[in-house]
Amino acid sequence: MDIEILYSSDADVAISIKGINAGIKDLQIRGTIRVVFKPLMNVMPLFGGLNVFFLNSPVIDFNLTSLANALDIPGLSEMLRTIVQEQVSAIMVLPNRISVALANNVDANRLRYPIPKGVLRIYMLGANDLIKADFGVLKKSKSDPYAVIRIGAQKFKTKVEANTVTPNWNEAFEAIIDEKSGQFMDIEVFDEDPGSKDDDLGNVSLELEPVSKKGMIDSWLPLEDVKKGMVHIKLVWLNLCNDILELDRLLSTDESLRQIDGDTEYSESLSSCLLMVCVDAAKCLSKSKKSLSEPNPYVELTVGQKKERTTVKLSSTDPKWEENFRFLVHDPHFQEIYYVVYDKITGKSLGEGSVPLKNLLSATNMTMDRKFDLKGGEATTNSRLLLQLTLRVLSNQLNPTWQEPEDLFLPEDKIPKAPEATSTASSKAEDTEIDVNSIESGVDPIKSVEETPTMAAGENRLSTDVDDMAPPSPTSELRQRRSLTPSLSSSGDHGRGRIQLTIRYSTKRQQLVVVVHKCINLLPCDGDNLADPYVRMYLLPDKTSANKRKTPVVKNSLNPVFDETFEFPVAPGELATRTLDISVKHNKSMFSSDRQIIGVVFIKLYNLDVFKALTEWFDLQPEDFGEKMSIGLPLNTFYTAAPALLALDGLPLNAQSGMGRRYGFLPFQGH
C-alpha cells in the first residue's frame, strides 16, 4: 500500500553551542510511504510482519532560526538540509526501512533485510546542448557540468567536465534495487561553481519497473525545468541467480564482464556477483587485561575497497548484532571478505579473519552459515564470529528458476516459546512451492521445513545437480531428487559414515576444484566415542607432498563441517586417467592406540562433465577396500539425472542394474 503524505510540523528545534543559539522550525516532509504487510497468515492478525519505508527520498523543507537565520552564511542552509536529508534516508528510505515482526514465528532479520530484486547497472554516458550557466567578462562562457544520480538512499556522482555544454562522462555505476514497482531513478545535472551554490542545469526521473522488464534501455532523455538539454544514459537490469554455470559464462574469457552488455570500457569497475553478509553474533571475546572490563565491540567488514561496520555493543563478550551488509564483487575467484572485531574503548583488535569468496561457489545454495574463528589481536582460543554469507551471480538472462521465494518464517526449533498456548501460522511446508523446472538449472527448490531429528544444528540442506540433457517428465525428476537425498541417520553401507563433496572443473584455469563440505555419522575413534577428524586427499597417480591437500582438524565431532575448497592443476585431456584418493582420518597422538583412518573413497574422473558441478554424498569404505571399490562418475547417455548420480565402477550402467534401482534413477527415455 502506497501512501502520499504531507507532514507539516510546528516543532521548534533549538541548539546552543558555547552560547551561540541556532535552530530550525516549520519542518515539512512530502513523499510516498510504502507499507508492506507480509508474510500473510491464516490466523489473526492475518499478516506476520510490517515494513514501512520511503520508496524515494522525500522532500524536506524548514526555516532556520536565531543566529543561523541572521547570518545566512552561503552554503550553510544547503549543508543543513543535506544533513537532515541524509539522516532521514538512513532511517527509512530504501534500502533502509522500519520493520515490525507481529508473530513469534517470523524471522525479524529476513523481514528487515529481504533479498534484493536485482542490480541496476547505470552508464552515465554524456549530455548535449546544456544551458550555459557561466558568464565571462567579455563573452558568454559555458558550464562545468556534472550529474548526480539518486535511487532511494543510494547516491552517485559523475566527474566534472570543465567548460563544456556537451560533456562525455562515460562512467558506470551499480545500484542494488530492493523494489522495482514504484521506485524511480532521479538524475540531476549541475554546473559546478566553487564558493557558491551550484547552478541547476535540469533534471529527469525514470521509473525502474519498465527497465526490469525490457532488460536494457539506451536513450537520450530531455531535461526538465530548463529550456533545453538532454542526457544520454544506458541502463542494464541484472537478475540475481545461484547458478555457478552462469558465472562461468560471464568470466569465461579475459574480456570478462564486457560480454554482459557489449561495452569494453568499464570491465574493471563492473561486478559479477552480489555478496550479502549477515553479522549475527560473536562469542567468547576477551576482556581488558588491565581492568578486566568487558569490551564495547563492533565488526568491520572489508571487500575490495569497500568497508562496512556494525553498531557498537556496550559491555559484552557475547554481542549480538543481527545486521546485514551488501557488497558488489568483481570476481569471487580472487577476492576475500576480511572481518575484524574491534573494542571501541581501547581501539584494539579482538580478533580477525578472512573467507575466500571462492568457497561460496561450491557451497550449498552459495550460502555459508557458520562460526568463523577469530585469530590475532586479543582473541582467545574460543573466540568466534557467527556470519551468514550468501553469494548471488548478476546476470542479464531471465530464468524463472532463479526467482527465489521469500521464506520469512523461522524453523520450528528457533521459534520462541510463548508462556501460553497460542495459535500459530500454518506450516511452512504447506506454503513452499516446488518448481521442478529449476532442477535442470542446478537450483535446489526443495527446502525442508522441519529438520530430521538426527541432523546436527546448523547443517545445510543437501543438494544435487541434475543433468539437463534429456526432457523427462516433472514427476519423474522429482522422484529422482527425493530418492537421492540420503538419510542422515545412516552411517553408509560400511558403517563408517558419509562425506559430502562438490567436484567441478574450471576450464578457464584448468583446475579441478574439490569442495569438502562435511561428514556425518563418522566411526568413533577414541575413548569418548568421538573423533578429531580431518580429510586428506591426493589426485592419483601423483602422491607427492606437493599434490597433497588437507583440511583443518575438527575437534570432538562425528559430524564435522569443513567447507574447505581445494584445487588440483590438471589438463582437460588428463582427467580420464585421474582418480581422487580421499581419506577421512582421526588426528591421534604419536603413541595413541586410537584408530587413525576412519574411511576412504576413491573417485575416478573418467567421465567428469567439465560443464557441470557435481555435489554428492559418498559412503566411506574400509581402508583395505582400496581402489577395488573405486567410484566412477556417471555416463550421461544412460540416465536423465546423470551428473548428480554415481555408479560403482565395473557394474553395468543400465536400467536393470541393482545400483540403478538402489539410487532411484530412471532409464533415459529420449531418442
Describe the structure in brief.
Residues 418-496 are annotated as: Disordered. With 671 residues, the chain is mostly beta strands. Helix content is 10%, strand content 36%.
What secondary-structure arrangement, pairings included, does this model have?
Elements: E1 2-8, E2 12-17, E3 20-37, E4 49-54, E5 59-65, H1 66-71, H2 76-92, E6 98-101, H3 108-112, E7 118-128, E8 145-151, E9 154-157, E10 171-177, E11 184-191, E12 199-207, H4 209-214, E13 216-222, E14 230-241, H5 244-250, E15 273-283, E16 297-303, E17 306-309, E18 320-329, E19 336-343, E20 349-356, H6 358-361, E21 367-373, E22 384-395, H7 428-431, H8 474-484, E23 498-506, E24 511-520, E25 533-540, E26 549-550, E27 561-569, E28 579-586, E29 597-604, E30 614-619, E31 631-632, E32 647-648, H9 658-663
Parallel strand pairs: 29-31
Antiparallel strand pairs: 1-3, 2-3, 3-4, 3-5, 4-6, 7-10, 7-14, 8-9, 8-11, 11-12, 13-14, 14-22, 15-18, 15-22, 16-17, 16-19, 19-20, 21-22, 23-24, 23-30, 24-27, 25-26, 25-28, 28-29, 31-32
GO molecular function, one term: calcium-dependent phospholipid binding
Membrane topology: Peripheral membrane protein; Multi-pass membrane protein
Protein name: C2 domain-containing protein
